[in-house]
Amino acid sequence: MTCTRPLPREIDLLRCSARTVVDESRREHMAGLCAAGIDWDLFCELAGRHKLIPLIYVSLNRFCRDVLPASVLERLRSHFLRNMQRNLALLAESDRLLRRFKSAGLVAVPYKGLSVAAIYGGAGLRESGDIDLLVARCDMESVAILMREMGYEPDSPRTVADDRRLLGSPYNYHLAFEHPVSGIVVEPHWGLMPRFFSPRLDDFASDCLTRLTSQDVCGMPMPSLSASDVPLVLAVHGGKHLWERWVWICDFAEFMRGQPELNWREIWDRSRAIGVSRHLALALRLASDVLESPVPAPMADGVAAVHGVAGLARQVQARLCRHLDVAEPTALQRHMFILRCMDGTGDRASWIWHQTISRLR
Which CATH number does 87-226 carry? Predict the structure, then answer.
């Protein structure tokens, strides 16, 4: 991982332990870091900020238990168990929702959240905040009605007519509902980004629903995105959020590790067709630079040739190398980052135009 100064031990330990497979050299390095002295309060706070506590707990408990303070191990263990409990509740509710959707003739697939947790081999190694579902735009009005029938309420005062208006807006691509008893939040999405970001990407989100497969999450079969679509979804999601959390890089790296047979040339061609090849190149570069996950051989030359991606990767890494004093990006910085991730001038022009309009409203 590239930093302009020596990597802080806390961040180095985070980087080494945030993975499901830890080789012998990393185990020794992790033990050495623990023995050299770690600010454990800072480490736990960083791990919490980046949503990595469940993953690093398993690594540290397995390989560094003897050199880890008992109080720290218990702190991490308690968080791990709470996360497991919450994820199981989300999993049960996801199953209830999907069954009800299916009986109503509605297609829905979990993405992000628990569906990503399956990449790690189970529901306990990744934190999930809410339930994200990808649905067809044409079904969204029926979905909104069904959510209310299942006891969910809009996250803000909103009628079905309001939902219909938001569905037609180029600035919206999901709605949010919260259950008043469980507190679970469900976000049905009909897109990955606002339509003005890229109509081609909006069409891709719809096409994903025609290529669904299935996956096993803690023994429960659930529909899933096609393996060839997942890296594009993860890349766009991470880029949308400026890759501010380590967990999004871990998601991408773990997915690559678990899918060695993917046809990356096909994925690269699709990324170019829908205008997100720079997003994909950045995701691959970050997984390589931050977590030493090799760029797939068919992609190596293509990633290296994408102008400006190395600079974007350094920008992300510079933020990740900081401690807790890093300032939140300004609105302008966010817009500039997203613009630099876009493939074409047409998409950039659309982004600038619509962002200007929304500011004037």
Answer: 3.30.460.40
